[in-house]
Amino acid sequence: MTDYGHELLFGSFITPTAERPERPVALARLSEQLGLDLVTIQDHPYQVRHLDMWTLLSVIGASTSRIALSPNVANLPLRQPVLLARSAATLDLLTGGRVELGLGAGAFRDAIAAVGGPRRTPAESVAALEEGIRIIRAVWDTGQRSIRVDGDHYRVRGAHPGPAPAHGVGIWLGAYKRRMLRLTGRLADGWLPSSTYAPPAELPAMNRMIDDAAAEAGRDPAAIRRLYNVDATLGAEQLAELAIDQGISAFIVMGDDPDLLRAFAGEVAPAVRELVAAERAPSANSTDAARPTASAGPAASTVDDGRRLGRELPWDESTRPTGPKPDPHRTYSARQRAAGQHLVDVHDHLRAELRQLRDLVEQVTTGAAEVDSARSHINTMTIRQNNWTVGTYCESYCRVVTTHHTLEDISIFPHLRRADPALVPVIDRLAEEHHAIHDVLERVDRALVAFVAGPDGAKSLTAAVDLLTDTLLSHLSYEERELVEPLSRLGFM
After folding, report:
1. Strand, helix or coil at 146?
2. Residues with Cβ < 8 Å from 417, sequence gap 6 or more?
3. What is the mean pLDDT of residues 435-445?
């Protein structure tokens, strides 16, 4: 086991497409809104279909307030080390210490040479990267009077250091081969491979090379953060295993689909955090580690209080089947409880988003009712803007709900059917309710069309959102009541 104990981070890996320049900025903003920790941008300066990475990162930095920013990874052959260091430090100062520096040796030699960059052999590329790292760190070290690096690829003689970044910017290397991995162990603050080039099965051998090189250099291997660009095929349990077994502490999802980001932030990330926390908990101290990790029962489900905003529901709640009664004497490990708790956490996220949606609808409809005739034109413009804000928000929320239900329908439900046949009637009913909820979401969509078309749509929109509230809260409580214990007992897959 190689868990280095680093705080878990989750991020997005965005393509800097020039065809729709507003899209990567919007995806970065969405990443922050969803609570992700990090947004990263590809850097291929020879690619004519891409925006310039540093310019784009600067705009993203100005458009966000919390999320960390990093190249993934900066192309050193086409970015002179002194200027690269100063660009990173400048952006770090302007964003209040939110910049990290993903750095690469430059793998596409022909493309680099085609735009005037150096054509280097693999060995020369690694040597140049090592020189570049030393120059970058020297530029940031304002405690010295001048910089002098006499390398085979870079020579800096007498340049003054500065500016210093706002915080200790980490240098994360995109490394795969032996020379690069050993360089990572000797000099880097982090390792940033991609699952497409370094699949999970190859990580143990790569990690050993980094750890061995770090030890030989007198460094603690735990000082090197392990980050991983992942695709959507890796689920929460796989990522949690990578965190515990391979020390990966930052997962960056590759893809430019907003729904992918929503699912990753709203479902995958919380599940990984729960599973890793459950594994780490027994080792908090030696006394607790020797004790059993079982608890009295599964995670607590959310009780339905029975209150409804309207008289309509798309189903008869009295006909809902129930699953087998849990064994009152059974105990559950922390990891088992985490599986059930994850369902509750995902549902709590949906409940919180629903409250925000209701508040937003109420604010806008109240504003529309107070329109002053003397300012009708201005107020109409404002309301129109707010209306579209509501529309966008509602549509985004509905996609999150649909994504969550689709994931249950195609993965969790089949697993529970196979694992415990007594759950089949419950699973069938939940699947039926998912279809009914889809119809309610369609009704919200229709109400949105009426709402943004004119003020007469406010009443139907409120009614539709009330129905969505009653329907969804009823369903989520029923699902938790019936599935939290089975998930704790049987797991997700």
Report:
1. coil
2. 423, 424, 427
3. 85
Beta bridge partners, 254, equal: 13
CA–centroid distance for 383 within its chain? 33
Distances 244 to 226, 272, 307 between C-alpha atoms, Å: 12, 10, 43
Greater confidence (378 vs 15) lies with 15
Pairing of strands 190-191, 225-230: parallel
**Encoding tokens for residue 102?**
């993903």
pLDDT at 317 exceeding the cut of 70: yes
Listing from the earlier edge strand, what are the strands of the sheet with 171-173? 68-71, 38-41, 9-14, 248-254, 225-230, 190-191, 171-173, 101-104, 74-75
CB 315 within 8 A of CB 439: no
Look at the chain and count its residues: 493
Cα–Cα distance between 242 and 202 in angstroms, integer? 12
The first and second tokens of residue 329, run together, are 């004497």
**Surface-to-core class of residue 9, CB atoms within 10 Å of its CB (0-12 exposed, 13-18 middle, 19+ buried):** middle
The CA–CA distances, whole Å, from 383 to 142, 234, 368 equal: 52, 43, 6
Inter-residue long-range contacts of 119-124, CB under 8 Å, 24+ positions, other chains counted: 120/77, 120/153, 122/177, 122/179, 123/179, 124/152, 124/153
The Cα 78–Cα 97 span in angstroms is 25
119 pLDDT above the threshold of 60: yes
Q: How confident is the model at residue 191 (pLDDT cuts 50, 70, 90)?
A: very high
Please return the burial class of 118, using the count of CB atoms within 10 Å of its CB with bins 0-12, 13-18 and 19+. middle
Give the global pTM.
0.67
User: Between 439 and 16, whose confidence is greater?
Assistant: 16
Sequence-separated (6 or more) residues with CB below 8 Å from residue 209: 178, 181, 182, 185
Domains and CATH numbers, the chain: 9-286 (3.20.20.30), 317-490 (1.20.120.520)
pLDDT at 289: 41
Number of other CB atoms surrounding residue 315 within 10 Å:
16
DSSP 8-state symbol, 264? I
State the angle between helix axes of 236-246 and 269-280 in degrees (0 to 180), rounded to the nearest 10. 40
**pLDDT the model gives residue 331:** 87
- What average pLDDT does this structure show over 452-458? 70
Lookup result for tokens 């990874």: 73
Helix (H, G, I), strand (E, B) or coil at 70: strand
User: Distance from first CA to last CA of the chain, Å, rounded?
Assistant: 22
Do 44 and 12 touch, CB atoms closer than 8 A? no
